[in-house]
Description:
It is globular and about 80 Å long. The chain is an alpha+beta fold. It has a single domain, classed as Sortase (Sortase, Chain: A), CATH 2.40.260. It has an eight-stranded mixed β-barrel. The chain is built from three helices and eight strands; from the N terminus they run ααββαββββββ.
Amino acid sequence: MPDSPESAPPTRASRRGRTRRKPNQRPRQRVSIIGVLGELLVTGGVLVLLFIVWQLWLNDAVLRAAQDNEAAALSESWATSVPLPTASEDPVDPGTPAILAAPGDAEVFGILRVPRFGDDYAAKIAGGVSTSRTLNPIGIGHYPDTQMPGEAGNFAVAGHRNTHGKPLNQVGTLQIGDAIVVQVEEGWYTYRFRTLEYVKPSGVGVLNPVPQMDGVEASDSIITLTSCNPAFSTAERIIAYGVFESWTPTAAGPPAALTDPLEG
């Protein structure tokens, strides 16, 4: 019985039309545009994630350490500029607090120390609250229209809660009685933390001489720390208030508040 066309062996002509595959040669795979884009997006996402980790944690840690060291060096230079009294000398009379002239924009005039934030914590304070000139490169900024440390009224300052060294990152951890110390070349102003408040960004009443009281003359000296809230957001402002406790001139040495910060 003759072979059917389906079972007939291929002719020489039909074999010529076929492409012979070399041994171990795999078929070519087409490059997919969607696949390439997918890989690029994944790579880009990883890079963005790494940048966020660097910006929010690693870089902040580096900047915080650098700002602490710079402030500590400045503090040391101020503390050693005036000789301390010897044991045979009478203690220095604290007298009345020194009231400084308002600083210029981005002019460093003080150092903020908060033992609750860590033994090594120190943040320079400069005039103005510009992000580009004061808050980002220096740390803490003083609201120009508010009072100076030790003066009757409201010494109000601002600082980042995240990024750029985040000097007020731990403001929400303050507890009643915590020491908040402002050092200047002439000495130290010691405040004690009293309460927290949360306001909208438009809540400028916290900067009044008597916070949230319009037209009221101040008789006490307070400090107001302002920062963004919640963390990683600018939806609100977190406000920390402290009341003035004491003044310690440089010649008397560091105040007890820095060695026994919760006493008082």
